[in-house]
Design goal:
By secondary structure, this protein is an alpha+beta fold. It has helices spanning 19-23, 63-73, 96-107; strands at residues 4-8, 28-35, 37-40, 46-49, 57-58, 85-93, 118-126, 131-138, 146-147.
């Protein structure tokens, strides 16, 4: 069975407005963190910024290939995120061929084109101390928003 893990930090988290529409049917969920900076945008939702050197891969238009790439990354030694942590939830799904395209559309990620968000693979640190590769959505550059020094949204 092909699975995919996704780190969420904003409106897709449990109790937030887009959770039910996009995250129901998950196999599991746990608290996690990734290295990056979190911003509260004027539009009322957050944006994650990660450094290029922390990105393991960028998503493509082929969700099954992306899931396979993530599976291969599980067998590599990944750097543990230690500072500048953004806290959120790590979801596990069994339907990457359906789930990733739906999330990509919601997040405005269009592989090969200008996009609002990018889907990138990054190391995620779980609450149990395990480091796993997880897809997440980031914005390129520095967004026009307020930094959230605690790395948690809502602030």
């Amino acid at each position: 069975m092909t699975t995919v893990s996704l780190f969420v930090y904003g409106t897709l988290k449990r109790g937030q407005p887009n959770h039910e529409a996009f995250c129901r049917g998950y196999l599991g969920v746990e608290e996690a963190a990734v290295k990056g900076r979190l911003f509260a945008l004027p539009a009322g939702y957050p944006a994650l910024v990660v450094q290029e050197e922390d990105v393991l891969a960028t998503g493509t238009a082929d969700p099954l290939a992306d899931a396979a790439l993530q599976e291969r990354a599980k067998h590599r030694e990944l750097p543990e995120p230690r500072r500048s942590l953004v806290r959120g939830e790590l979801y596990y799904f069994r339907d990457p061929g359906i789930r990733l395209p739906a999330l990509d559309a919601f997040e405005g990620f269009r592989p090969g084109s200008e996009s609002l968000y990018l889907r990138v693979l990054v190391p995620a640190l779980t609450a149990t101390g395990k480091v796993v590769p997880a897809w997440t959505y980031t914005v390129p550059g520095k967004p026009a928003g307020t930094p959230l020094p605690g790395g948690v949204w809502p602030p």
